[in-house]
Amino acid sequence: MVVGAGIAGLATAWWLERAGWDVLVVEKAPAFRAGGYMIDFFGPGHEVARRMGLLPAVEARRAPISSVASVDERGRERASISTEAYEAVADGVVSLLRGDLAEVLRDAVRSPIRYGTTVSSVEELEDFDLVVGADGVHSRVRELVFGPSSVRYLGHHVAAYSLDDPALSAQIGYRYQMLTVPHRMIGCYAVRDGALAALMLYRSSSSVLPADPAVALRERFGDLGWVAPSLLSVVPSDVYFDTVSQVDMPVWHRGKVVLVGDACGAVSLFAGHGASLAMTGAFVLAEELAVGTDGAFERYQARMKPVVARTQEFGRKFIGWMAPSSRLRISLRDMAFRLSGQPVVRNLIRGSVMPDVDGVLLR
Ligand SMILES: Cc1cc2nc3c(=O)[nH]c(=O)nc-3n(C[C@H](O)[C@H](O)[C@H](O)COP(=O)(O)OP(=O)(O)OC[C@H]3O[C@@H](n4cnc5c(N)ncnc54)[C@H](O)[C@@H]3O)c2cc1C
Q1: How many angstroms separate the CA atoms of 64 and 146, rounded?
Q2: Can you tell me which atom of ligand 1 is nearest the CA of 95?
Q3: Domain identity same for 191 and 288
Q4: Does ligand 1 come within 6 angstroms of the Cβ of 253?
Q5: Stretch 78-99: mean pLDDT, rounded?
Q6: pTM higher than 0.90, yes or no?
Q7: Are residues 194 and 311 in the same domain?
Q8: CA-CA distance, 219 to 200, in Å (whole number)?
């Protein structure tokens, strides 16, 4: 049984069913959730997608984003980095919606996926030979099997949602535009069919989310200009609203239960490689199980955990780039954007956007 039909769960189901396992996937959401936020997909996860034969489908969903721009309160560009320059620092990167990557995986999985289903007790897990907890950063499997978890709060809350506004979507275009003020960032970009995707990030000392996302977001961003009032006027009820956290636990398995993806090793949006590592974890787990079930979980963890730890450390350092704490830091980041055409600066940016994930796919 695989719990969670996200990136990690679907990729695990795919590899296990190819290896001859009978797989059942259970997913809490009542139906498949499309869309979501934009992710940059590269690194070892990209290579895993290639090995699965899914790169053409992933490429077909590539978002036509042409640049990432920092704008001021009137929407005037302060600095930008072209997609071409970004691709030069992030080899093979594909920007696409998280839901699009999940859809590619779901379409490739043959095993049954039971939506609107979750696990509520450890006893239920007894019915299966292998239980994979792929249920994300707030994993229920982790809580049931390992008790109170080791979640490291990174001091921010994040919201993401889409809205249908063809006029605004046309105005923003396929450019990721963001307005940053100390400790707060609001960004948006056009997505398909006249829709717009919004992302908001703000610093908070509390790891408990406010009860009403719309109220909280209006309180935090209501004083800002540019498109902020338009975005805040339509916060939908199904907004993605969460704390920004990492998961750090000493052991990823117990008995026949093993965790993959964010459930055991969330790196956070600051690190930006979570989807890639979720795919990688699925592959490494299946590869080690194919070598032999004895000790497979230990070998899987030994290969994955150091890479996850390095990426988490990298993510913590990246907070200051994504959510700068002062106007000076915002100006420095914008300067790096402006100079991103220069090879020297590109190399510096490469060092700060790419964690060391090399070698994880080698046995
Ligand atoms: C704003 C933002 C930007 C990001 N940007 C990037 C990026 O640029 N690049 C990148 O690689 N990563 C990025 N990430 C991280 C990436 O999205 C995650 O690391 C990745 O989705 C993890 O996959 P997962 O399958 O482990 O978890 P998820 O994708 O969260 O999937 C977990 C699944 O389990 C289900 N579930 C939860 N609880 C239960 C339960 N009790 N029972 C059954 N099912 C359950 C959920 O509904 C969900 O379908 C970003 C994340 C955010 C929030």
Answers
A1: 42
A2: 8
A3: no
A4: no
A5: 84
A6: yes
A7: no
A8: 12
